[in-house]
């Protein structure tokens, strides 16, 4: 259902993921305990620090894959600051809705790029093109969400019960696999991951354009 309200709805996400209920309980419990000196924009901007941490670690991880535990920690920290920033603004009524929407998602993309850079730095030679493809595809997923939001005022980031939280969990599992088994299987796994992401992008794009087509047809019929 398209949001009929003309008010900006970027702070209201449509749908749920598998972990939405437990993470709602977490933020309702944790946010009131955040010190008053910390504002919502402080939490939003912390993603820049977590991204920088990934980039610095990337130069050392090639010689010590156990440093990926630190990357996983940065993923958890980015998840927490990303989860709490909007809720902090809502509870204190100090939110910066449009600034928060812009900076939050821009920095999310920067953080994602930093993770791709980590993967690039630890990969065996000859896989560079696959990382380029992966970065393009995940960027297209974000562009799809924002263009769909611009057309409908519905901000949808969940698909098939999966969202950013489940994606972060997947990244931590991948880091754990690499620490335990190394990068020898990258020549098979990386092309497979990129191919699956491409298929998911095609399906996602088809569904969005089909929905927008139906909305346009409905508008034409009413006219």
What does this structure look like?
With 223 residues, the protein is mostly helical. The protein has one domain: CDP-alcohol phosphotransferase transmembrane (TM) domain (Four Helix Bundle (Hemerythrin (Met), subunit A)). The chain has seven helices and two strands. It has helices at 20-30, 40-61, 68-92, 97-122, 128-152, 164-181, 186-222; strands spanning 13-14, 155-156. Strands 1-2 form a two-stranded parallel ribbon. The longest helix is centred in the last third of the chain and has 37 residues, at 186-222. The chain starts with 12 loop residues before the first strand and ends with a helix. The mean pLDDT is 89.
Key descriptive features of the protein:
single chain; 223 residues; mainly alpha; Four Helix Bundle (Hemerythrin (Met), subunit A); 2% strand
Quaternary structure classification? single chain
Specify the number of helices: 7
Into how many domains do the coordinates divide?
A: 1
Would you give the CATH topology?
A: Four Helix Bundle (Hemerythrin (Met), subunit A)
- H and E string: EHHHHHEHH
Proportion in helices: over 70%
Examine the secondary-structure arrangement and name the CATH architecture. Answer: Up-down Bundle
What does the overall shape look like?
A: globular
The termini sit apart by 19 Å
Q: Based on helices, strands and strand pairing, what is the structural class?
A: mainly alpha
CATH class term:
Mainly Alpha
Alpha carbon gyration radius: 19 Å
Low-pLDDT residue intervals, each spanning 5 or more residues? none
CATH superfamily: CDP-alcohol phosphotransferase transmembrane (TM) domain
Strand order, sheet with most strands = 1-2
Count of individual beta strands: 2
């Amino acid at each position: 259902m398209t949001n009929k309200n003309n008010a900006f709805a970027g702070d209201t996400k449509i749908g749920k993921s598998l972990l939405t209920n437990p993470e709602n309980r977490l933020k309702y419990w944790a946010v009131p305990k955040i010190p008053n000196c910390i504002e919502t924009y402080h939490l939003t901007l912390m993603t820049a620090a977590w991204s920088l941490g990934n980039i610095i670690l990337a130069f050392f991880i090639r010689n010590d894959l156990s440093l990926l535990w630190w990357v996983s920690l940065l993923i958890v920290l980015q998840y927490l600051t990303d989860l709490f920033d909007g809720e902090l603004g809502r509870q204190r009524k100090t939110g910066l809705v449009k600034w928060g929407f812009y900076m939050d998602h821009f920095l999310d993309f920067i953080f994602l790029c930093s993770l791709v850079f980590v993967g690039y730095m630890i990969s065996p030679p000859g896989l560079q093109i696959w990382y380029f493809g992966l970065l393009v595809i995940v960027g297209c997923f974000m562009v799809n969400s924002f263009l769909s939001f611009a057309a409908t005022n519905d901000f949808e980031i969940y698909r098939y019960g999966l969202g950013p939280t489940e994606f972060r969990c997947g990244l931590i599992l991948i880091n754990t696999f690499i620490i335990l088994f190394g990068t020898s299987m990258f020549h098979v796994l990386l092309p497979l991951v990129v191919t699956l992401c491409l298929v998911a992008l095609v399906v996602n794009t088809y569904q969005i354009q089909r929905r927008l087509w139906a909305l346009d047809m409905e508008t034409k019929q009413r006219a």
